[in-house]
Design goal:
about 15% strand, about 375 residues, 13 helices
Length: about 375
C-alpha cells in the first residue's frame, strides 16, 4: 500500500513476540503516552501503510513516523526507548520507572492507606524516596492531591445545556441575554495591622488575621454580548431582594428588548411572588442551569474577576465602605467592559461528559 510519494519503503515485519509487546504498550491507557504512540506507529507501519498514511491515521507528523519506523528497523523494541542524554549514566532503568508509574496508577497502597506516599512506594519498588519523588514530578503524578467533582442529577440536563449554550452562541434577535446570579456573602474584612508595601525582592505583606465587619450580597446580571454588568448590593438575599433586583434590571434595559435570564435553581428564583411579577412582565424569560452546573453561568467568570482584582486584597472597616468600593469597581468595569466569549458547542460538552462517565464506569470503582 502507498500513496505514490517518496521513496519505496522496505516492508516492516514483526515477530509474534514483538507484535504482542507493541500491542501491550499501545492499548494500556496508563502507559507513558509517548511510548504508546511509538508502538501504534510501528504497528500501523507493519500493516504495510506508508509513512503519510500512518501520519494521517494517527494524527502525528510525518517526520515523527519516519523517525520511529527507522529506529525500530535498526534496534527493534529497544529503539523505541528514549536515547540516553548527555551526563552521568542513568541509575534507574525504564522498567523501574514504568513499574513506579504503573503501581502508582493501578495498585492500592498497603496497610489500608488512602494514597501512596514516597516512602511506601519506595519500599514497594525497592527505590529510595528521592527517586520516587523525581519520577512522580516528571510524569505529573500527585497522589497526595485530590480534586472534587459532581455530576448533575438533573433529569433535564441535556435539554438545559442545549438551551443555555444556544443562547450564548446564537442570541435571539431584539433580545438581551443576561447571566444572573448572587455572590454572597461578601465580607467586609479589615486586617489587624496595615499592609506592608511591596519592595524589590519582597512581596506586599499582610497579617494573617483580620476583623470581620459584616457582610453584603451582590446581585449581578452580565450582558453576554457586551460584557457590561448590572450590579446591586443588598444586605440579604431572599426573594424580596431578588425581586428588587429584577425591577432594577427592568429599569436599566431598553424596554423594547426581550430579556433572557440565565439563572441557577436557587429557591428564591421560583417563589410565588416572583412568578406573579414575571406574569406581569412577559419580556422576562428565565432559563435555569442544571443542578450542580454553575459552570454554565457566565456571570461566575465575571465574579472571578471581581474577586481576583478587587475583593481578595481589599480591606473595609464597614459594610457601607465595601458596597461603595464594589459599586465603583463595577462602574470602572462598565467603562471598558470585556465580554467572555463562549466557544464550546453543546454537543462537545455532552460528548466530554459522556466520555468522563465512561471512564468512571470502566475504572472499577
Amino acid at each position: 500500500m502507498g500513496d505514490g510519494r517518496g521513496p519505496k519503503l522496505a516492508p516492516l515485519e514483526l515477530t509474534a513476540e514483538e507484535r504482542e509487546a507493541l500491542r501491550g504498550l499501545a492499548r494500556r491507557p496508563k502507559t507513558a503516552q509517548a511510548l504508546a504512540v511509538r508502538a501504534r506507529i510501528v504497528l500501523a507501519c507493519a500493516e504495510g501503510l506508508s509513512n503519510s498514511e500512518v501520519s494521517r491515521r494517527l494524527g502525528v507528523s510525518l517526520p515523527t513516523v519516519g523517525k520511529w519506523r527507522k529506529r525500530f528497523v535498526a534496534d527493534r523494541l529497544d529503539g523505541l526507548r528514549d536515547e540516553p542524554r548527555p551526563g552521568a549514566p542513568r541509575k534507574i532503568g525504564d522498567a523501574q520507572v514504568e513499574a513506579v508509574i504503573t503501581k502508582t496508577l493501578e495498585d492500592l497502597p498497603p496497610n489500608q492507606d488512602s494514597h501512596w506516599s514516597t516512602r511506601s512506594m519506595a519500599t514497594a519498588v525497592g527505590l529510595n524516596q528521592t527517586a520516587v519523588s523525581r519520577i512522580w514530578r516528571a510524569f505529573g503524578l500527585k497522589p497526595h492531591q485530590v480534586q472534587s467533582w459532581k455530576l448533575s442529577t438533573d433529569p433535564l440536563f441535556i435539554d438545559k445545556v442545549r438551551d443555555i449554550v444556544g443562547l450564548y452562541l446564537d442570541p435571539p434577535e431584539a433580545a438581551m441575554v443576561l447571566a444572573v446570579d448572587e455572590k454572597s456573602p461578601i465580607q467586609a474584612l479589615d486586617r489587624t495591622a496595615p499592609m506592608l508595601p511591596m519592595m524589590p525582592g519582597v512581596p506586599g505583606r499582610v497579617t494573617h488575621d483580620y476583623v470581620r465587619h459584616g457582610t453584603t450580597s451582590l446581585f449581578a446580571a452580565l450582558d453576554v454580548v457586551t460584557g457590561k454588568v448590572i450590579g446591586q448590593t443588598q444586605r440579604k438575599h431572599r426573594h424580596q431582594e431578588f425581586l428588587r433586583f429584577l425591577r432594577t434590571v427592568d429599569r436599566a434595559t431598553p424596554p423594547e428588548l426581550e430579556l433572557h435570564l440565565v439563572l441557577d435553581n436557587y429557591a428564591t428564583h421560583k417563589t410565588p411572588a416572583i412568578q406573579q411579577w414575571l406574569l406581569k412582565h412577559p419580556r422576562f424569560h428565565l432559563h435555569f442551569t442544571p443542578t450542580y452546573s454553575s459552570w454554565l453561568n457566565l456571570v461566575e467568570r465575571w465574579f472571578a474577576e471581581l474577586t481576583n482584582h478587587k475583593l481578595r486584597r481589599s480591606t473595609h472597616r464597614n459594610v457601607a465602605a465595601l458596597e461603595a468600593d464594589v459599586t465603583a469597581w463595577i462602574e470602572a468595569w462598565n467603562a471598558d467592559p470585556k465580554p467572555f466569549v463562549w466557544t464550546k458547542p453543546a454537543d462537545d460538552i455532552l460528548e466530554t461528559i459522556a466520555a468522563y462517565c465512561q471512564r468512571i464506569n470502566d475504572s472499577g470503582h
